[in-house]
Amino acid sequence: MKNVRFLFLFLFVIAQQLVIAQDSNLRAYLDNKQFYAPGTGNYLEIYFQFVGYSIKYKGIDGGLQGELAISLQISDGEKIVASDAYRLQTPVMKDSIVDDFYDVKRFAISPGRYVLSVELQDLNSDAKPVKASQPIMIEDLETSISASDIEAIEAASKGDENSSFFKSGYNMIPRLSTFYPSQLSSIPVYIEFYNTDQLGDSICGMKQMIINTETGAELSEQTVYSKHRTTQVLPILRNVDISDVPTGKYALSYTLISKSMKELTTQSYLFERSNDIEVSWNLETMVTDPAFQAFITNDSVTYYLESLIPISKPAEIKNIISTIKTKDVELQRRHIQAFWLQTSPGSAYDAWLRYKGQVQLVERIYANNFQEGFETDRGRVYLQYGAPTNIVSRETSPTEYPYEIWQYNKIGVFSNKRFVFYNPDLVNNAYRLLHSDMVGELKNPSWPITLSKRNTTNGNIDDPNFYLQDHFGGASNDLFRQY
Questions:
Q1: CATH code, 1-142
Q2: Rounded Cα distance, 258 and 35, in Å
């Protein structure tokens, strides 16, 4: 089983912006997780979260109710190995307030590679069905020591076996969003370990960790060990406190450990946290390091303080802006020093010099007549993630705007991430970020249409490439996919 599985799919029909008077159209989120059960074998859980306001309702006694037709198929490329088609009535909505609602389906399925295809239809609407598909991989969890996927939970309560959300004594409503704002202080999660009784000991251990995926740093205060009895299926339901986890991108991991402290199997859950914990520095009383004093002239202090924004968290950015507004050069100089003392304790000055060199580099390459280098999208990405492994640049094309494709072999824990920049103004070196497959960055599935807009008319949200014509010299799609 993959250590990290991050499947998050949006399903849309026609864009609401195209027809202002048009009613909302069906919108849903889809995810899946793999588990194992003795007597059943490997099985897949498919989760739906339906956006309540995107569904049409009819009046019934006691409120409003909608109805959906759902079709699921799992195929191996040659034949359909599992399928289901059913109608789903929404919960009764009172008054005009509608909430999101959920559904889950389970399929026993043998290990292998498959394609999951989904079709959703609002039975009270004339809109076309929503269709989507995605590849899935089923691992063999039956014979060896292994772990299920980690299921994030929206809510869990003591349940009954008749509920489709019932598992291990609880009704568990899945959480499909991996974004946790400051209003949420915990992540309820569920995971199962299998065949720990093969260890030959009555006791095994589990290690819980949270790792910053951007820096690789472990949040040591979040590392927790626990003991468990070995068994064929070991279910774990945890409520992970993230109230003190600052803004950033993280991996919550669970590792099974033998009695001799050998790590046996690991599973991870990626999430993004927004938590503006205030950063408080007493700049008034800070003693300025002569090194920081000597290498930043008075007329460039504000520039270099602003240049920290691309690598700063939201709370730090607020502090930077506040310090700049004081127009106090000495205070700004201390702020730069404080930033690097916190970011790179023990090597603050060396880290600052390295970053200063990068800022000067992006200024020479990416600045234009209305933006500093670090203010541009390419400059920001370079400073935040470092130099790309490969750059493909096309200044001229018969039908495409000038563009660059940046490819990174590694960004933190992520592999093979790409960024597409383009220059629709054709002047000023003002390339903008058009699309990226990096977590937390701008995602634009119809980026080839935008890039080729001089050769493309209209568009279709059901098929972003419907009106994208083949044309001589338009190689951006092939270049993007070659990595």
A1: 2.60.40.10
A2: 21
